[in-house]
Design a protein that fits this description.
heterotetramer, A: alpha/beta, four-stranded mixed sheet, B: alpha/beta, Rossmann fold, 2 domains, six-stranded parallel sheet, two-stranded antiparallel ribbon, about 45% helix, about 10% strand, globular, binds thiamine diphosphate, binds magnesium ion
Chain lengths: ~325, ~375, ~325, ~375
């Protein structure tokens, strides 16, 4: 057991799985000597050598396309995309190939790979370094999408991804890379993909969130006098609709919180599912606290854009008052 | 010295058996043993015949859009002939001849164009990837596949095919650059057939050759007559030996011509002159080998007739195998999505013909469930 | 007034606007001599010359990136992407630049352009020729997304797009390119973006749809004995939430129909909005009839995948029975 | 002839004023009038000084991540000096010196890195585009901008800058290919500074030069000493004259070096040797011109001191202008989205501090509205 932050927990998960499975190979921009711009892969090239941990040319489609080939060839590549905003050039390889290869070949070729991507805002970064594109990939059948919100979860979920036979995008909320520390077992454990975590129980209202927003939700809950249940999705696709439906059936009210723009964000899907599953139990419309339908502003105004605890509190109040 | 030379290079063009029947003994002698040449010729004839069969299938509504290979048989065949059976062959959609040589069943290709994924699932015994529809993307996979082999210590290279048009895609550049900087043994074969649908190759490159696309990456580059099987064999041999030895990529432009329409959905008369097509008919790769073999007494019209008969039978058997496959069940496109199907997809699969999406009947209040059942029954009677 | 199909209506709209505005320039793969693989730009190169209608190299990111520059330079480019599945390589230029240039420069640079893309399934085409990616771009602030369902609408909407000061993706449902003919005025008219059309009025249930699915919805409505209102969104973003809310407030029930996969499809957003706006009027959960969360199958099974009239009918019945 | 030459070429390297002070009179004489040289030198010094100012601003929390230009001043400056004021200058993020020469206000650049879009809205009087963050993407815009100008009959070219790393992106390839096949007059300038963050340039190209990236497209290619202002001026002149005359693109590699960290968020000591940095300090573009001017009696230490004083004042005024801009209002990031804001965005903008998203208070039942108001009031008291 060690007290680790998210970066360290991910680093540890990589080391431990790489020790076990020599098919795991890491690649990306500046992940070798430099250990990645967030130092997530620090020390790994030294430890595992240049063939297992290597820098690529600066080209994201190339990184993902190469990884797809490596996965088809029997490895489990772990490409890193340096920032969320630079998934864009890799979109086509992810959507047209990674997501389809198994289906296209009826299982003759598969693409086991874990794409690591720092995600989200809040670190005063330049343009295109603060995006939240999870809904885009949740809308792409054939991929899985994971986003941890704590060091413990990060390790357990990442290990699960590294053993997955299908492609996963593992989003790492960079805002909490170093903001939270917690006890993380040295021992091996996995957290199942597709299972949500009930962060705290409550009876009056359910909050559903994921990634760094979970922290804002906890702050809002601490300030509230009402009994609120918080569900951290952990996996965006496939998402744990049962856990959400069960909770909302109990509380009758729900607030969803995410950083991505409102329209067609993953909150929309959750809201739609809640209606389908809990219609007769719902006492108020599901509320969404999300990024606005604008481009993520440059950092001077990013805190105006990002959902924060006061906005979550207001939604809780509005929803409870309904 | 204020002006110095930073880089200097020369790209060669190779032709061994030209369209007039001239054969360069120095380069060509012993390159392809006679017995092999006969087999290679037969393979080209069979491939060309299947093109015609597929065309008729499409016209009679038994197949969807199909891209004929006609005229380009010597390019992929030359490569497939040279490569080891465990080298990767990563193609686009106009390399049937090479794929068949490799052992990919003809019905696999037919099924693909019949709109059936099971074609892609058929045995690819010799490291051939499925047909790639999004242009320019598959060369990166070739690099990845080979890098995986290299990582595992295997002595394996890849040869990847793509068109003059596809070489305009950004992924082409990234694949070449990854292979060269990461030292991955890939032979890049650009099939310049002068057209990308209606777009002439001059709209896809303003350079005098496509071969020089490889210079950007420091690769050795070569241009060959792609309608000359001897030349495609020669080039692939040179390239594969180089790349196998050095772990570095090699770039080949094979100059050829698409004799047919782009696909069965295309009408090439809208954009190109018949004279151009006729000229290229005179450079047909199959005819060239036939004349060569006849001159060397390896072939005659009796053999030709027998071959055509055999090919017709084989191809119609392949069509029969493709057409006689059981009608697919809708479960298939669900079950192929993930190794373990997520619960929600299981529901979608199992209720797609009985329930609305997202409407799990157990969620309905009892009386509504009742009503829904009645209405469904009524509707079933009604329609 | 002429009896035109969708292809002809678009062709006519292009001609008429090009006559008026010499800043409109068409580019794309095979749109010149060949008139596009669907012949939508037939005759335009001959009419307007090689500088205004030209073939590009085969590279979608290049087509959109070039168009962005042309738009910043004062023209209104109309790039064609040959098929929906080949928008993938252009994703980054659309999302990282076209959608952001105005916001990034606080209006100093803008990107007036109309990206034409044949969309959707049902024509027995090969892989990646039958996709419905509208939700992806609706989730991208800064773009507008339009999809007509008839020749009349196609002309009026396209003319509106060609006069828009912001980038629009104009999706053309290829399944009905030639399937429907109707009277289309020769005279100039525009249909406002962001306004839905009530295709037929009804009191018991609202169907919301767009593109080729509107046709399947009409078939289902014809077979039904109930009073059903059909709303064709016409514009996906910004979408006419008022029209939808008004209708559902009246009927209390809603079915949404689209070809794209269910999860995080645009139906999710509509469903969430309906809950937010019509909670107290809703008598049944909003139903979604959509593509399944699988890759669009090759054409042998595409009709199993695509929402058809019987599936819409079943949803109507289920929703009404609730 | 079975083996013929398909393509043959040579790329030259140009250096005029080298790091030892050697000056090639033949190429260099009259290239830059003395008065201009002084001004260009002053511009480089001012740019270098602003780098230091920005570094301190970042370290003291007054600015976000900032990429220093140090060592690369002569590349973009040479180009900006040669270009006409209505030629497009389409840059990445390490071309401050050229942008300032163009007349882009320093506070525009500072504001950008202070996380404020208003920096990009500031006057770009001379056809300069905003800093491009997604690497490799802006060269296509350069081509589009110039094509629009050509379409309008204007005599205007573009010069676009990007790094050795950025040249690995697919969009780089597409931009070069579009410019050459569509005959768009663009000068492509690859700044090879040997590093892309921690990635050495050998990981971004396996070729002996980056200049040869242009051969793929049939462009004329040139490599120059990018720390030699005379050479960058010479090359841009050659290229811009060619491209203006022919409507065809031209490719230049400028060899330079990033003397500082990649950005203020980077620590270059992690991946490169001090000895390498020291060697390149000896090749500093600014020092070279200074020594040259001193030797020609165009400059002395008195002038230097006066310059430094002036620059310090100017730069702190620019910082003041950047910092004194009013705090932005959140309306700004809504209002900038579309020319006419969609109704839904108007609601989001106007209710963002008072209501939940999607919660139009008029939709609440009356008693709930009442209760919500009370709770809000209570909450406001509570916190
Ligand atoms: C990314 C992408 N864009 C567009 C298409 C549509 N398309 C199919 S084939 C073709 C032309 C291909 O030309 P080329 O690469 O020269 O190959 P050829 O058909 O000549 O063998 C086009 C534009 C596609 N399949 N993929
Ligand atoms: C598409 C994209 N991928 C990754 C990044 C992150 N990034 C910023 S600068 C940089 C290195 C750039 O190297 P180079 O092009 O050589 O320019 P230099 O910094 O050396 O001037 C990287 C990887 C980015 N901005 N855009
Ligand atoms: Mg071609
Ligand atoms: Mg660099």
């Amino acid at each position: 057991m060690a007290n680790l932050n998210l970066v360290q927990a991910i680093n540890l998960a990589l080391i431990q799985e790489m020790e076990k499975n020599d098919g795991i190979v890491l690649l990306g921009e500046d992940i070798g000597v430099n250990g990645g711009v967030f130092r997530v892969t620090e020390g790994l090239q030294k430890r595992f050598g240049n063939a297992r941990v290597f820098d690529t040319p600066l080209a994201e489609s190339g990184i993902i396309g190469l990884s797809i080939g490596m996965a088809m060839g029997g490895l489990h590549p772990v490409p890193e995309i340096q920032f969320d905003g630079f998934l864009g050039p890799a979109y086509d390889q992810l959507v047209s190939h990674a997501a389809r290869m198994r289906s296209r070949t009826r299982g003759a070729y598969t693409v086991p790979m874990t794409v690591r991507v720092p995600v989200g805002g809040g670190i005063h970064a330049p343009e295109l370094h603060s995006e939240s594109p999870e809904a885009i990939y949740a809308h792409t059948p054939g991929l899985k999408v994971v986003m941890p919100s704590s060091p413990y979860d990060a390790k357990g979920l990442l290990v699960a991804c590294l053993r997955e036979p299908d492609p996963v995008i593992f989003f790492e909320p960079k805002r909490i890379y170093r903001a939270i520390r917690e006890e993380v077992p040295e021992d091996e454990y996995t957290l199942p993909l597709g299972k949500a975590r009930v962060v705290c129980e409550g009876t009056e209202l359910t909050i559903v969130s994921w990634g760094a927003s979970v922290v804002q939700c906890m702050q809002a809950i601490e300030k509230s006098e009402r009994s609120i249940e918080l569900i951290d999705l952990r996996t965006i696709y496939p998402f744990d609709v049962d856990a959400v439906a069960e909770s909302v059936s109990k509380t009758g009210r729900c607030v969803i919180v995410h950083e991505a723009p409102l329209t067609c964000g993953f909150g929309a899907e959750i809201s739609a599912r809640i209606m389908e599953r809990c219609f007769l139990q719902l006492e108020a419309p599901v509320q969404r606290v999300a990024g606005f339908d604008t481009t993520m502003p440059y950092y001077k105004m990013e805190l105006e854009y990002l959902p924060d605890a006061p906005r979550v509190s207001r939604a809780i109040e509005d929803c409870l008052a309904y | 010295m204020p002006i110095t030379t930073a880089f200097e290079t020369k790209i060669e063009h190779i032709s061994i058996l030209d369209d007039k029947g001239n054969f360069d003994e120095k380069l060509g002698k012993g390159l392809i043993p006679d017995a092999d040449l006969v087999k290679l010729y037969e393979a080209m004839v069979a491939c060309r015949h299947l093109d015609e069969v597929a065309f008729r299938l499409q016209r009679s509504g038994r197949m969807g859009t199909y891209p004929q290979n006609m005229g380009q048989e010597a390019t992929s065949l030359g490569a497939a002939y040279v490569l080891r059976k465990d080298d990767w062959l990563v193609t686009c959609y106009r390399e049937n001849c090479g794929l068949f040589w490799r052992g990919v069943p003809k019905e696999a290709i037919l099924l693909h164009w019949m709109g059936d994924e099971r074609g892609n699932a058929m045995p690819r015994p010799h490291f051939a990837t499925p047909i790639a529809v999004p242009l320019g993307t598959q060369m990166l996979h070739a690099a990845g596949l080979t890098l995986a082999a290299k990582y595992r210590g295997l002595d394996r290279i890849a040869c990847t095919f793509f068109g003059d048009g596809a070489s305009s895609e950004g992924d082409f550049h990234e694949a070449c650059n990854f292979a060269s900087t990461l030292e991955i043994p890939v032979v890049f074969v650009l099939q310049n057939n002068f057209w990308a649908i209606s777009t002439p190759s001059t709209r896809n490159s303003a350079a005098p050759t496509f071969a020089q696309r490889g210079l950007s990456y420091g690769m050795p580059c070569l241009q060959v007559d792609g309608n000359d099987l001897f030349a495609t064999v020669y080039a692939t041999k040179l390239a594969s030996e180089y790349t196998r030895k050095t772990n570095k990529p090699y770039f080949i432009e094979m100059v050829t011509y698409r004799l047919g329409d782009h696909t069965t959905a295309d009408d090439a008369k809208r954009y190109r002159e018949q004279a151009e097509v006729d000229m290229w008919k005179g450079r047909d790769p199959i005819m060239r080998i036939k004349n060569f073999m006849i001159a060397r007494k390896l072939w005659d019209e009796t053999k030709e007739a027998a071959l055509l008969e055999r090919v017709a039978v084989e191809n119609s058997e392949a069509v029969a195998r493709a057409e006689n496959i059981a009608t697919p069940h809708h479960d298939e496109f669900f079950d192929a999505m993930y190794e373990v199907l997520p619960a929600d997809l299981v529901i979608q699969r199992d209720t797609m013909h009985t329930h609305s999406l997202g409407q799990d009947p157990s969620q309905l209040p009892a009386e509504a469930r009742e009503r829904a059942a009645q209405m469904s029954a009524a509707a079933a009677n009604h329609h």
